[in-house]
């Protein structure tokens, strides 16, 4: 036997024979176990540390590349991101009333068109033509609501300073988790005058979570979705939960009627969801993110971005 050939042992031959002999028994078991074990193994592999070769991890000549990340928040005009100065110059027919539209996380101004085929116009179009509001569409990328709020506050402050006419009133309409960024933005205080936060008269939230709770150690992504979609609870960092809402503005929250409600009269499933927020037998502190807000519940069905009853309510609130 050549010294370069692998050495064959009796134990190895016995194991190979046993593996071939049990192939017929293993096949049906594999068909049942594989669909269940596959996703679990994939998650474990994703969490495992990965060693990346140096030649792949670095750019040519050994220099690392730093991707340029776009901001979490940006003003939108003509389907593109624009600076506050450019928006102030290019905005058609600017007025002293700014209607800031903040979409849900991961969306832009296109979200506000959903359902407009039944109403004939979007919220911004009707408020612009009937009440003289100037729409200010924005884009919101995924990220921390506190960081998004800081960026939104900075963008709106620069917009107010560059606006061609003195801004007398600002109304904000936010969808989904975009309302969390608006809450953080309104908590920012500016030394420069005029501050945009002092001009905010109404904050209208469409499907914005009402309650917040600190993250739990063993919380899963499924558990977080259950909290937000069924019980109206969003998991957020303590720094965000400690922010105060803009008390000088009217907060109006429009939501679909939630399947579960907090409190002693909640359903059994609702009690199970709220039971998750306990540490060592004691309930975790659940914060009302908008304690002074007026809540309006609608029957589930049509998208909140364009509904006849919400159209009528906006015309009353922003008159």
Layout: helices, strands, pairs:
Blueprint: H1 10-21, H2 23-47, H3 54-57, E1 73-77, E2 80-82, H4 84-90, E3 97-102, H5 116-119, H6 123-131, E4 134-140, H7 145-162, E5 169-175, H8 178-186, E6 200-206, E7 211-213, H9 221-231, E8 233-235, H10 238-241, E9 250-256, H11 268-275, E10 278-279, E11 282-283, E12 286-288, E13 294-298, H12 308-317
Parallel strand pairs: 3-4, 3-5, 5-6, 6-9, 7-8, 9-13
Antiparallel strand pairs: 1-2, 1-4, 7-12, 10-11
Notable characteristics:
single chain; about 325 residues; alpha/beta; Rossmann fold; 3-stranded mixed β-sheet; 12 helices; about 40% helix; disordered N terminus
Written description of the protein model:
- With 319 residues, the chain is of the alpha/beta class.
- It has a single domain, classed as Alpha/Beta hydrolase fold, catalytic domain (Rossmann fold, 3-Layer(aba) Sandwich).
- It is 38% helix and 19% strand.
- The protein has helices at 10-21, 23-47, 54-57, 84-90, 116-119, 123-131, 145-162, 178-186, 221-231, 238-241, 268-275, 308-317, and strands at 73-77, 80-82, 97-102, 134-140, 169-175, 200-206, 211-213, 233-235, 250-256, 278-279, 282-283, 286-288, 294-298.
- An 8-stranded mixed beta sheet has the order 2-1-4-3-5-6-9-13. Strands 8-7-12 form a 3-stranded mixed beta sheet.
- It is elongated, with a radius of gyration of 27 Å.
- The protein starts with 9 loop residues before the first helix and ends with a helix.
- The relative contact order is 0.12.
- Mean pLDDT is 76; it is low at 2-6, 32-37, 39-63 and 262-282.
